[in-house]
Amino acid sequence: xxxxxxxxxxxxxxxxxxxxxxxxxxxxxxxxxSIEGATAHLGNGEVIENALIMFDGGKITFVGSANMxxxxxxxxxxxTGKHIYPGFIIANSTLGLVExxxxxxxxxxxxxxxxxxxxxxxxxxxxxxxxxESMRPNGVLLGQITPQGGRISGTSSVVQFDAxxxxxxxxxxxxGIHINWPNNFSRGRSWLGEDPGLKxxxxxxxxxxxxEDYFNNAKAYSKANPSITNLPYESLEGLFDGSKKLYIxxxxxxxxxxxxxxxxxxxxxxxxxxxxQEAYKVTDLLKANQVPVVLNRVHSRPNQTDDxxxxxxxxxxxxxxxxxKVALQANGQMERMNSRNLPFYAGTTVAHGLTKAQALxxxxxxxxEILGIDDRYGSLETGKSATLFISEGDALDMRTNIISHAYIxxxxxxxxxxxxxxxxxxxxxxxxx
Length: 433
Hints:
Layout: H1 2-19, E1 33-36, E2 39-41, E3 47-48, E4 51-56, E5 59-65, E6 75-78, E7 83-86, E8 88-93, H2 130-133, E9 140-145, E10 152-160, H3 166-169, E11 170-180, E12 185-187, E13 198-200, H4 204-224, H5 231-235, H6 237-241, E14 245-250, H7 253-265, E15 271-275, H8 283-288, E16 293-295, H9 311-320, E17 326-328, H10 335-338, H11 342-351, H12 356-361, H13 365-371, E18 388-391, E19 403-408, E20 411-412, H14 418-432
Parallel strand pairs: 1-6, 2-7, 8-9, 11-14, 14-15, 15-16, 16-17
Antiparallel strand pairs: 1-4, 2-3, 4-5, 7-18, 9-10, 10-11, 12-13, 18-19, 19-20
């Protein structure tokens, strides 16, 4: 009976595993590819009509006009009437860290405790996530995988979305530390009979002092050369020597000012504001200190009752017009599922003032520069990674974002997902009836 149960269990695992297994990662590029005739959106603000893009060995070897007299390399793809884009990049994401929100065993996006700079999101990243693979058909091919929770959440890494394991997926390991800045205001706990309205956070100054004390201890630790390793303090050393960036999650005007001044005081070489709902109020400060912003989800409601109704839609333009480097994210409820809408968030900014070239930069070269991977990704340039895709139409428009080919490091990746399998299955069912 015991062996019968084991047999049934194994059989069930095989059957359910066969229903949907991870898409096999594509093999390394072995033959050169030339794509000609499409409109190439380079991601750096340039557009080439009737373009010729060639790549070999995972690297782009030529970007220019198809009218030029140059020999085509390898397989030639006629993409006349279509569009070519660099792979889109989602910043500040928990993709691959959570599969099903209601199933605790599938959630690995946060650690217990308040001070966790040594917690690395990369080792928890699940390359076989059904959610992750659903990003690729919309052109989202890379992401910054970020831990959540606590005052210092941990260390993020950048990955590409077609790999067997997290080691293969890694594009940039341990790129930055993430802090959740204290709120100036807090809401009363109505379930305890308190007024649910906004009120001043009386502990704000003390909470900032706690962060400063923690950083001072980390700096003292790095100078002391101790015999016993303190992993949390050791993890912060990259902030002071410039090898890591400091990502501070903060939205309000005073909080942003305090966060920038905190970074300057602690001689943090590179910092990034994440959220930045009121960043448009302090653009002079951000520009003077060269602080980029990973902006809150564009498809959001205004935060304050006296905000413009369309403020979340036009904040990107307000910042870009002031010379602030901006990238987009998909934070909030259902963040992982909404990440596939990244190109459409960029499209919304076009309807509210940005040009299409500017909007494209919000999800290509800008996040690449913020994350420190712009030497390889973020734009279609000779020598960079051949991480790109071909779309039937405008990729920032959900009606025409229809991808026929997608490549990561020159590898032709699968665009099949659990969702496309279900779509095909039930399409056949109802057509049959």
